[in-house]
Amino acid sequence: MTTTSGGLLLVLAVLVPFVGVMAGLVLGGRNPQRIALLTLVAGLGLALAIADAYLRSGSALVYLLGGWAPPLGVALRADSLSVIMLVAVAVVICGIGVYACADFGTPAGQREARAPFSFWLLLLAVWGSLNLVFVSGDLFTLYVALELLTFAGVPLVCLDGRGETLRAALRYLLFALLGSVFYLLGAVLLFGTCGTLDIPLLAARIRPEPVVWTAAALMTTGLLAKTALFPLHLWLPPAHAGAPAAASAVLSALVVKGSWFLVVRLWFDVMPGIVTFASAQLLGGLGAAAILGFSVVALRQERLKLLIAYSTLAQIGYLFLMFPLAFDVAAGQLDGGGALAGGMLQAISHATAKAAMFMAAGSIYAALGHDRIEGLAGIARALPISVLTFAVSGVALMGVLPSGAYLAKKLLLGAAAGSGQWWWEWALQAGGVLTSSYVVLVLARALARSEQTIQLKKSVSRVAQSAALALAVCSLLLACAALGPLPRSLISNPLAPSEIASVLLTVGGGGVLAFTLGTQPSRIPWAGAVGGAFVSADRMLRRWPVAGIALLVVATLFGWTLATA
Amino acid sequence: MNDATIFGLCAAALVGLGVYGLIVNPQPLRKILAFNIVGGGVFLLLGAIARRGAGAGFGGDPVPQALLITGIVVAFSATALAVALLLRLHDETGSVTLSSDVPPPPAPAADVDAA
Q: Which pLDDT band, with edges at 50, 70 and 90, does A482 fall under?
């Protein structure tokens, strides 16, 4: 194996953001913002250059650090998955950067302000770490990248320094550390068994045996704890809802994708042959539970940002539905194809749409001085762009035409039908309806007529609102993937009766759910009781000891399902 | 029973103790210490693997030793960040509980909305 042409670009993609962090730290004052904006442009250019080099060569880009080949050396590698994620993250970070200029500019007359100084440096650090996650070729570098990502993400939670957010940050850090130590333990066990951590070498040497099952179970569980998949989500709602809007967007759209991407790497690249039918079903089952449970909890929230945080938890569940669908029963192993493409597309759609949604909520919060959903009436007239952004990103998340998530859903439904796993078709369809329920709930409030005109506490930057809208529109435009890399047959006539019926069903079903479960006090007694039960169960699961035991149970279940072929 | 096995068993015991502490102890500082005990267990295991994989004339396999040192650095930074957050939390709120169920101490009026 040798360094390919364009390999150096991978080093730059990781290095440039970190050089920006160092330079900003040393120069201080107003410089971090300037440096960050310059780096955003450079980084976006680098991501596009990597995509170009990849398309030209048609095979993975490789860079051997110091010229040493694995197993002794460390290789950076960019395959199609990495390239897609690199470009998507660059676009989202640029959108967030433009939005954050309004919130995180250093006030005039001040030489340096703490929050902007930290935010811009942390934004670059998150970007560099994510790029390292995407291009790392061995499990230990991935561990380091994942830790860097956590260290950059945790301070974003408590930028405003309030006690409540500090507590959320500490919870996040401690639970993430528990997850990463599980991952490291698994990686060490794999090294002890196979003598290498380089992904291609490991994939060739790995055999189904008890040590490997243990390692795989530990690593998967650790990563799920960092991704906040049900039932390991205790840290996410307070952390994502308490952070400033731009930081929430980074955390919700991007940071959780880092550990999710690692699960994809682990299952598809390292141990596709170790995965069993039962373990893939278990992973998908946790995802389905997340979709159902957290969508209902989202409907019961009183604050917009908490609603969006729970929506993130539900959408994380959606990202794990591709694992059972990618399992090839005849060959007894995971096989990429349509399900993997659908999952990646879903992840990118979610990244763009969720960033836009959090930023729109941030604008609304800033303008109103609160984000109580009850008090949103009339906001559509005062902040039309932000409400439109919320609506567009909501549509993008629901998976109705035309959006990237629609294509993703089609691909996943196709994989479900192809492998005869009809129960996942139900989960996918229900996911769309549940997503539309909380979007409809918020929009119904925002579009309601209010008696008195709303007094805005603060005018919101139009540029910032437009940046959010642009990201939301990006999520819709992902549907254009059907014109390029994906088969065009995925989009049939959008006005066909079946398509229109499915859209009506999704939105209408969501409306009914929002009406029955979402209103407080409930109009229907049993619906109130059901919603309340979900909220209590969520509160129970978010207690530390319960979450800790859930972690051990999940690890045991994965070990058991991997061992019973 | 050879050296590597004994060290491996010790590592398993440390990991078990640490995970127990992380889950059961409510105080954040103890959780941080417990994390370090788990980390110690993992590093001991890595050391045992390095010893077991030693080539002729070597004290140990250098690759896991290099991983071990990197891992210690990462765990150290994690501990430093966690302790810094903990101190800041204590300065701000006067308590170090992680539970959000406990009613927070009287907050300034501006915070009531957000809480």
A: low
- DSSP notation for A89-144: HHHHHHHHHHHHHHHSSPPTT-S--HHHHHHHHHHHHHHHHHHHHHHB-BHHHHHH
> Checking DSSP bridges between strand A61-64 and strand A75-78, what pairing results, if any?
antiparallel
**Using CB atoms, which residue from B64, B67, B82 is nearest to A174?**
B82
Architecture of the B3-94 domain: Orthogonal Bundle (1.10)
Q: Do A170 and B86 touch (CB under 8 A)?
A: yes
Mean pLDDT along residues A505-527? 76
Placement of tokens 């989009």 in the chain: A491
A vs B, Cβ pairs < 8 A, gives 122
Cis peptide preceding A71, ω within 30 of 0: yes
Q: Over pLDDT 90: what percentage of chain A?
A: 41
Read off the pTM: 0.91
ipTM: 0.88
Domain range annotation of chain B? 3-94
Question: Do the Cβ atoms of B32 and A549 come within 8 Å?
Answer: no
User: What is the distance in angstroms between the CA of the first residue and the CA of the last residue of chain B?
Assistant: 57
Q: Is B85 on the interface with A (CB under 8 A)?
A: yes
Mark yes or no for CB contact A151/B115 under 8 Å: no
Residue in chain B nearest A549 by alpha carbon: B23
SS (H, E, C) A3-63: CCCCHHHHHHHHHHHHHHHHHHHHHCCCHHHHHHHHHHHHHHHHHHHHHHHHHHHCCCEEE
Bridge partners, residue A334, by sequence: A327
Across the interface, which of A155, A166, A238 has its CB nearest the CB of B89? A166
pLDDT of residue B113: 42
Is the pLDDT confidence value at A247 over 50? yes
Chain A interface, mutation test: which of B67, B93, B96, most A Cβ atoms within 10 Å?
A: B67
Average pLDDT over residues A169-187: 93
List the one residue out of A256, A235, A230, A221 whose CA is nearest residue A317. A230
The Cα–Cα gap between A2 and A187 comes to: 25
**What are the C-alpha distances in Å from A453 to residues A362, A373, A423, A441, A450?**
21, 17, 48, 21, 7
* Residue A372 main-chain phi, psi, to 5 deg: -70, 130
Q: What is the pLDDT of residue A458?
A: 77
CB atoms within 10 A of CB A484: 7
Alpha carbon A25 to its chain's center: 28
pLDDT at A495: 67
Note whether B78 contacts A147, CB cutoff 8 Å: yes
Q: Is A368 exposed, middle or buried (0-12, 13-18, 19+ CB in 10 A)?
A: buried
For the record, the structure tokens of A171 come out as 């919870």
Asked if the C-beta of B66 comes within 8 angstroms of chain A's C-beta atoms, the answer is no
Residues 350-389 of A with CB under 8 A from B: 369-370, 372
Q: Which residues 494-533 of A have a C-beta within 8 angstroms of B?
A: none
Indicate the SS3 state at residue A475: helix
In this prediction, residue B94 carries a pLDDT of 81
Q: Give the residue on B whose Cα is nearest the Cα of A168.
A: B98
Residue B64 has pLDDT above 60, yes or no: yes
Q: How many CB atoms lie within 10 A of CB A249?
A: 32
Q: Sort out which chain A residues have CB atoms less than 8 A from B44's CB and list them.
A: none
Q: Give the pair of three-digit tokens for residue A88.
A: 């998507």
Q: What are phi and psi of B46, to 5 degrees?
A: -65, -40
Task: Give the confidence band of B115 by pLDDT, cuts at 50, 70, 90.
Answer: very low
Q: Which of B22, B45, B78 lies at the smallest CB-CB distance from A188?
A: B45
Q: List residues bridging with A327 in a β-sheet.
A: A334
